[in-house]
Amino acid sequence: MTEFKVEMTNVKKAFGPKKVLDRVDLSVKKGESLVIIGGSGTGKSVTIKCIQGLLVPDSGSIKVDGTEIVGMSERQLEQINQKTSMLFQGAALFDSLNIWENVAFGLVEGKKMKKSEAKEIAIEKLRQVGLTPDVANLYPDEVSGGMKKRIGLARAIATNPELIFFDEPTTGLDPIMSDVINNLIRDCVTNLGATAITITHDMSSVRKIADRVAMLYKGKIIWQGSVAEINSTDNPYIQQFVNGRAEGPIQMEIKS
Questions:
Q1: Beta pairing partners, 9
Q2: E strand or H helix at 212, and its extent?
Q3: Closest CA to 65 of 51, 45, 49
Q4: Residue 129 class from Cβ within 10 Å (0-12 exposed, 13-18 middle, 19+ buried)?
Q5: CB within 8 A of 130, min separation 6: which ones?
Q6: Mean pLDDT of 240-248
Q7: DSSP symbols for 102-122
């Protein structure tokens, strides 16, 4: 059995003349929390979409649990993706469903579970992210942004996934709520024994939830290492990004 949950080898993806991924090599061990960092437009979201099979790379290999997914049929991909989940940047809750129905969505629609059983699991998952059962019958427009993130996280872990994607999990949150979400992500992933792939530019999130960090720049992985190595590396790209400096090798395109 492979020790890797995800393996990307020599993956290329372009949209017209724009190279978004340029020979990306990236492996994620089972049970590992990998965080991909990089500025806007560097290919972070495209990387995740390729792993999920939502985008097909122009060339290269992507394996999940040792199985090649590039070229898979839609039905085969559905079977792979039943073991995965995602916390979306804006939580992406369904306005027409109440909170417990949102959390239970994957159980009812994906696993065809009875609603009564799914509701019990949903309320337990809400508890795990620090929300009481009285929240269950509210609707998304009745809760705060921080609560929506927690609800999105509860939905992401409801099916006990093996692989979870986190898309900018702390965007739009204040520093305290960001720390709460980071702690919850760390705890949930640890308790599930799941593999996690997160994309973010929030360095406090990186330090809290990552076992390993990879930096994308102009479609290439230019650095990989542990969280501890971020502080000691002499890589000028990492140094500039981590410290948020305008001056350095990362050139921003600023249009007047």
A1: 61
A2: strand 212-217
A3: 51
A4: buried
A5: 150, 180, 184
A6: 83
A7: HHTHIIIIIS---HHHHHHHH
88, exposed or middle or buried, with CB in 10 Å at 0-12, 13-18, 19+? middle
Structure tokens given for 197: 């792939």
Report strand pairing: 67-68 vs 212-217.
Answer: unpaired
pLDDT by residue (tens digit) across 53-76?
999 999 999 999 999 999 999 899
Does the predicted TM-score (pTM) go above 0.85?
Answer: yes
- 181-234 tens-digit pLDDT: 898 888 888 888 999 999 998 888 999 999 999 999 989 999 999 988 988 898
10 φ, ψ to 5°? 55, 40
Residue with tokens 């239970």, as numbered in its chain:
104
Identify the helix (H) or strand (E) that includes residue 180.
helix 175-192
How far, in Å, are 28, 36, 46, 207 from residue 63 at the CA level?
A: 10, 18, 16, 27
Residue 125's identity, in one-letter code, is: K
